[in-house]
Structure formats: structure tokens, C-alpha cells
Fold:
Amino acid sequence: MWLVFISMNSNQLNFTQISLSEKKLPGDLAMWIFILVELTAFALFFIGFAVTEQFNQQIFTEGKAKLHTVSGVINTIALITSSLFVAFSVNALHRNKMKQVAIHLCFALIFAFVYLFVKGWEYQSLFSIGIDIETNTFFTLYFLITAFHFLHVVLGMVILGFMLVRTFKNAYQNNYSGFESGACYWHMVDMLWIILFPLIYVI
Structure:
């Protein structure tokens, strides 16, 4: 498909054709389908949480007061920073700067580990005061949703680690698709937390 743009220059009409086929989503179509499925699953979780809160406002208010908001902020910063380094790695890949790609991926993984450590500490602190998944409706949903996201972070880190190993093997010099697919998945994980954090900790 082609689009025709018309512009006026020096009393002459200029016609410019741009092929829409030149523009495409980064990564593989299969990854985008997988991301869509994952987003749908989380959307159902988020909707379920919001609806349940309307019928249990006191329990949810008391539950949120027991959460560590500061740890949530730290995790938000960690994941956003990690996602930023992944974006840097994609940019470096397109410039064929493989050493920079590897460095950026390492930093992305470091900040991802920060998220895991802080989240694990948060779980432990709740367990230490007798709060678990069976405490009440709020904490049932809290543990289900955050643990589900936690697993996605772990999977994302495995993917980033795989990307790092393949970078050392120069596997992406002629084909960016696989690398971009992994990057898109990690950005999805980051985006989900940005929605999850205010929904569960703040609002």
C-alpha cells in the first residue's frame, strides 16, 4: 500500500510516495501475539481487583496501609531504569555497537535483580507479621497479581540473559528481530508494573 503526499514548493506540486510496507512493528509477530495474550490476562486481573475493591473498600484501604509504598517506588524506579537500558541496547544494536549492547543488557539485568530483591524482602516482611494469601480478599488478590507479575519478571530476565549470551556470540549482527522481540517483552513487563503499582499501592 502506498500513501501519496502533496506539497507546494516554488509554485510546483511535488508528489511523494511512501510505502506503508516499509514500516513494521519491532520483533516477531508471534511475540506480539503472545504480548497481547499476556496483556489481556493482566487486564482481567486489574479489572477484577478494581471491581472487588468497590465491594470491600474498608478491607482494601486497611490492606494498602500495610504495604510498603517505598519499596513499590523503588521497584518502579528499578524497572523503568532497566527498561531504559534495554532501549539503549536496542539503539546500540542498530548502530552495530555490540560491546555497548552487552553493557546495557548487564545494567538492565542488575536493575531487574534489584526489583526481585526488594519484592522478595516485601513478601518476607508481610509473612513475618502473619500476612499471607489467605489473610483476606485484598491480600489474596495482592499476592496473586504481584506473584504473577514477579514470574513474568523472572521470565523476562531469562530472556535478557539469553539475549546477552547471543550478543557475545555476535548472533544479532544481521538479524535484529529476535533481539527486538525480547526487548518488547521486557517493556511489557515494565509497563504492567507501572499500572500495577498505583492500582494496588496508591489509588
